[in-house]
Amino acid sequence: MKLTTAAHDRIAAAIAAAEARTSGEIFCVLARRVSSYQDVSLAWAAAAALVLPLGLIPLGFEPGWIPGMADSWEAAHLAARDLSTGQALGAYAIVQAVVFLIAYLITRLPMVTRWVTPRAVRRSRVRDAALQQFLAHGLHVTEARTGVLIFAALSDHQVEVLADQGIHGKVEPSVWGDAAEALSQGLKRDDPAAGFEAAIGLCGEVLTQHFPPRPGNPNEVADRLVVI
User: What is the pTM of this model?
Assistant: First the structure.
């Protein structure tokens, strides 16, 4: 999803309009990806390599199933037993390695990655990324601690609205949920600019009610959308 210059201008204008009526600060971030979730893929691949090959044992798995592992000559009785055990272990290890690689490659497909990653994990990482952006752009050091971050993670299909501590005690948490839902709906329609505009409008309304403009109403944070 690529935003045009016009879309960036619309979002910047919406922020400026909202902040004209309040001392609060609104900042928007659109993240294409917050995590590769490679550790999740590795965990699924390891689990598959441990569990799936066990299903071969009841079927009478033996080294001969793998090309090159069978031996047409048989050694002395005791040596043959040791040899066949070693071959069986080696063959089983090969099967595990193949299953691990296949499972890992499958779970690296974007659609599959999102499906196999627990929702709680995605939510946690998106929230961590949003918090990093909140701090990186100085929303925590506004004069009245009234910074608001509107954050969207495209590949994760998650949105976050974070408000600084100066706001929490005066605003119902449902307000941020409504703003997040408005942004989410815009993303679903493939119209992120409209989603951000709606979320900005809702945040601006509540900020106007509780945090009127200060004398001069300085703009402490840039009015723009950052894409990362």
Answer: 0.78
